[in-house]
Known about the structure:
Elements: E1 8-21, E2 25-32, E3 36-42, E4 60-67, E5 73-83, H1 92-107, H2 117-132, H3 137-151, E6 172-174, E7 179-181, H4 195-206, H5 209-213, H6 217-235
Parallel strand pairs: 3-5
Antiparallel strand pairs: 1-2, 1-4, 2-3, 4-5, 6-7
Helix pairs in contact: 1-2, 1-3, 2-3, 3-4, 3-6, 4-6
This protein binds zinc ion.
Residues 161, 163-164, 166, 181-182, 184-185 line the site of zinc ion (ZN).
Amino acid sequence: MPGMRRPLYRDDALVLRVQKLGEADRIVTLLTRQHGRVRAVAKGVRRTTSRFGARLEPFSHIDVQCSEGTSLDSVTQVEARDMLGRRFLTDYPRYTAASAIVELAERLTPVEREPAMRLYQLTLGALRALADAERPGTLVLDAYLLRAMSQAGWAPALRDCAVCGEPGPHRAFSVPSGGVTCLNCRPPGAAHPDPATLDLMSALLVGDWAAAQDTEAAVQRECAGFVAAHLQWHLERQLRSLPLVDRREPA
Ligand SMILES: [Zn+2]
């Protein structure tokens, strides 16, 4: 309705995605603290005179004000909290890990405006950890993937049998069964990961970084493979950015 003031809201947000719209505008996908995932149009931000265009880049942590629209909300103000992406823009492994993180955050919030505060906190923590560069980026990524999937109700069983609950530890691991299985429940084609790999997955799930970082590269690679397979099984298709993650060891 012309002249009617649209309701405004203000929130903390992470920029998940930025798409061009016409000559001067952008559509931004935000994961907000209070309002869940929101898509909003940012008008005129591609003009060099735009006051907040530069703050709306992927991986930015912002304080945003939007006005509610009938189809899309509109961004009316942006303050930068931390331009996290700038701190790994030229670091390809971290950049690709961040891309997989925001892609999963978007996949796990299929419904707009459905509050997802724990996922928001988890995503912010992971992007900050990538920006701080104190931990290996691939471990930060795999910890995020495991924890985000667990929050979605898809934690892999890592100790007791995924099928019958028989107390572990067990050696067989089956993605379709939901994790480790006892000998009775072990399906054909089950894998037998290095026990250290299962320990690493447990350490990443609970955030035991000392134990996680004290693992061999081969164990970290095996862990990454199981995490990716577990993710693909539950999401039914792989994240586009996951195969691009550079997992070579730093020279
Ligand atoms: Zn069993």
